[in-house]
Specification:
By secondary structure, the protein is mainly α. It has helices at 2-32, 34-69, 73-100, 102-110, 117-126, 128-144, 147-167.
Length: 168
Amino acid sequence: RDLARFGFGLTQDRFWLWLSAQAAPFLVGRYFGQAQLGQFYLGSQLAVLPAQYISSVVSAVYFPMVSRALTDKVRVGGQFLAMMVGAFLVMTAFGLVLAINAQFVINMIYGDGWSGAAVVFQVLCVGAGIRACTQICDALNIARGDVYALAGRRAISAVIMVVATYAV
């Protein structure tokens, strides 16, 4: 029974993770066509990479710390706040620098023909701090074994991604 409950929560988590990753490209491709989908894809891939890699490293370090300290809630809470604030400030500053220099970055990496990807890159770079914080929240939920909290957070992200993409 416990295994089935955990498995169902993990299945929900994976579904919302898949939906949040696929919804925006699907909507862009459906409503704006292949050319804009290509611009969107390249801009989003490039914007997500720095935050994803840095967040993965932070999560990989944070997960064992939390796993060992779960019995001491005050310690875990302090570590969690410190990691969240630090990651948010560093990644937001890094994202803003990239957003300001978006056209240069896109031209340097992809060339002059991909300038349409710069807008997507800028918008997503501004959210680098938020993406880093969600990765840290995910690491905490995984350490706690709370797949339902993880699935709930990813469900909210998927809905926000779909609504924001559709609205924009």
